[in-house]
Amino acid sequence: MENPKFSKATVLEEYGKPIQVHEVPIPKIEARAILVQVEMAGICGTDVHQHQGELGVGNDSPLPIIQGHEIIGKIVKLGEGRDTDVNGEPLHIGDRIMWEQTNCGQCYYCQVLNQPILCSNREYYGFLHPVALRGGFAEHVYITPPTKVVKIPQELTNEETIGVACAFRCVVAGYEKLGGIRFGENVVIQGSGPIGLYATVAARESNAGKVIVIGGPEERLALAKKWGADHVIKIDEVKDPAERKKQILELTNGRGPEVVIEGSGNAQAFNEGVDMIQKGGRYLILGMTSQTPVSFVPSLIVDKCITIIGSISATIGHYHKALQFIKRNQHKYPFAEIVSNKYRLEEINEALENMRLGKEIKPVIDNTGRLE
Ligand SMILES: [Zn+2]
Ligand SMILES: [Zn+2]
Hints:
This protein is of the alpha/beta class. 26% of the residues lie in helices and 20% in strands. The protein has two domains: 6-155 and 330-370, Quinone Oxidoreductase, Chain A, domain 1; 168-310, NAD(P)-binding Rossmann-like Domain (Rossmann fold), CATH 3.40.50.720.
C-alpha cells in the first residue's frame, strides 16, 4: 500500500494560545516502526496544563509540539520485523493498538532497578516536535521501533478502552505497588475524575469492603456509583474536611478506611487522607500533580504506622492487564460512559477549554468519522 505523505496535525506553537491545524510530513517507516491512523485521542488534565505551559521546570517541552498522549491507532503500515504485540498476538494492517511511552532498556533504572517507568531516557508521545509525528491530536502517529504496543481486543469499542491509555493503566500500576486490596478492606477514593473512577471499579472487583468516593460534580459521582461505589460524598455539599471524616468514620466502624487512594490532584487532599486513614493503613498516591506546598505533621505517619506509596505512569503490561479487565467485565459496567464528549480535530481548542472549565470527564478527539 502506498504510504500517505502528509498528516493533519494540531500544532501548539505558543503556550496559552489557540492551537492551529497544519499538514505535517509523515516520516519514512523504518524496520519495526509502525504508522497508525489515530481513531481516538483522549484529553486529560495534563493536556490542559501542557497547553498553558504549566507542567513545571523540565516538563514543558520546547515548542512547537503535537500534543496528545492517550491514543488508539489503527495500523496503516508495519515496518519490517514487527509481527506481534507484547502478548504475542499477530499484528495486521487495520488492527487497533495502544502503546507505552518508550523507555531505553539501557539505563540504571531500566537495567539495575528494573523500573522502566523511572527510565532516564523516556521518550514521550504528545511532547515532541511535529517532525517526529508522535502526538495523538493528529490524523497519524509514527510509532518508533523500540515502542512496545498492545492490540485492543476486537470486541471492545474505542469508547470503552480509551481510558486505558492514561488513567486506567496508572491505576493498574499503582494497585500493583499497593499489593492490591485485601479481602474486605474498606477503601476511600479521593477524586472522581478518570483516576478515581478506575480506582473505584478496580477496588470493587478486588473484593473490597466498602468503596467510598469523595468528589464531584454530580455526573462523575453518578458514574462512580455505576462503577461500584457504595457511597459517594459530594465535595461541594460537604465542604468541611472534618464533616467528611465524620461521615467516613461512621461508615467504617469508627476506625477509618484501611486503604485511601488519592486521585484528585489536590495538594490539600494529602492531609485529609492521612487524617482519615485507619491505623496501620496504606495510602496510595496516584493523582498528585500539584506543585502547591502544604504543611504537614510527619509524626502522624509514625504514630499511625501507615504506609505511603507514590506511583506514576505505567508500562505496557499494565495496558494489557487493563484491557483484559475491561474485556472480562464488559457487560458488568458501562465503561463507555466515561467519554463525556467527542470533538473533531479542528475543535481542539474548544475541547481543551471545556476540560479546563471542568465540564468534561473524558473528552476525546474522534477521527473515526474522517477515516475511510
Ligand atoms: Zn492523560
Ligand atoms: Zn532507561
